[in-house]
Amino acid sequence: MERDVVSKRVRSRHAAQHRRLNENSEFEQLSAVLPIARAISSQLLDKASVVRLTISCMRLYDFAVYGSPTWLVESNYGSLQLNDEWALQMMLNSNYSTQISLGKWALAFLT
Length: 111
Description:
- It is a single chain.
- The chain is α+β, with helices and mostly antiparallel strands.
- The chain has two domains: 1-33; 46-110, no CATH class.
- It is 59% helix and 18% strand.
- The protein has helices at 2-33, 38-43, 47-66, 94-100; strands spanning 72-76, 79-83, 89-93, 106-110.
- It is elongated, with a radius of gyration of 20 Å.
- The termini are far apart.
C-alpha cells in the first residue's frame, strides 16, 4: 500500500518535471522570435513578460495589417498613441524604452 503511494508520487513528480520542461521550451522558442535584442530575450524576460510582449506584437501586427478606421491615432511630442473603440491604448515612444531597458523604441499596451 505504502509502496503504491510512493510510486504515484514519483510518477506525479516526473510528469510535473516533464510538463515544466516542455513549457520552458515553448517560452524559450517564443522569446526567440520576439523582435527584441537576443541578450534581453535570452536572459531578462520571465514568462509573464514573454506573454505580454507576444500579445503586444500580435496587437501591433493586427493594427498594421488590418488597421481599421476605428483606431484614433494621436501624435504629440515624440510619442504615438492609438486608441480603439474598447479604450485599448497602444503607446509607442522613445522614453519607455529607457524605463524597461529595451531597444530605442518599445511598445506598451495599456488596458
